[in-house]
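Title: Prediction job returns without error message
Component: structure pipeline
Severity: low
Priority: P3
Assignee: unassigned

Description:
Job completed but the reporter wants confirmation the result is attached to the right record. Sequence as submitted:
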Amino acid sequence: MPSFDLDMSNPFPAGYTQTYGGPNQGGHVPPEWYIQYGMDLGAVGGTEIHAAFDGHVTKLDTANVNLSTGKVYGAQLFMRSNNDGVGAFYTHFNDLPGGLGQGSQISRGDVLGRVVDAPGSPHLHLALVEITNGAYQGVDLYDLFLSTVGTTDIFTVTFYQDGATPPALAGGGGPGRFGTLSSVYEIQGALIALGYDPGMQDGISGPITTGAIRAFQSDCGLPADGVVDSPTKAALAAALAAAGLL
């Protein structure tokens, strides 16, 4: 199969709380791609989960849909893009829409269910895989997904289908280190690179992140209100460019 582009969007346009780890982190280990390349995206129990791309369901297991503890709980859904070149695995969710099952057609943004209200750390486990000539290669788009939580942004990813080249944002250059400075995660990364301390780069806005924004604004002669408005984004971009980081 030749290379192809796939439009994607975040499963959490709203409700995201924090990350619990990405590919090859913590318990995300080989050999299964759907474990090793998992992205554990935290959300309040009951938060809607949306499909990340168009495709069709290849397997749906609801045996543990009513469980909320242990390693295996909630529904497990495998799906593929319509050309069968990309696959996804979703788990730890319930309240599935009626009629969803093997063979169902899915459109990007469709609601697949809701996050199980698991004790302590409710989250969606989402893993991606590229399928090339029958071979499965896990895909790491963790930073891209963290940078788009809380948005309905559509991003187009190129899958090269050569068994070697990692997927990247269409148009070249990959997602970039700081994206478009449109999310808390990207803003935190930019502040860290510029020597400010927004706390952990977790995509969650809090007093430490706000304090770092205010410090940057003050240093740039901007109103130090902690709000990342257009002048603040422009100043961040200019500072990153001046430091050779863009």
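Comment from assignee: result matches the submitted record. The longest strand covers residues 123-132.
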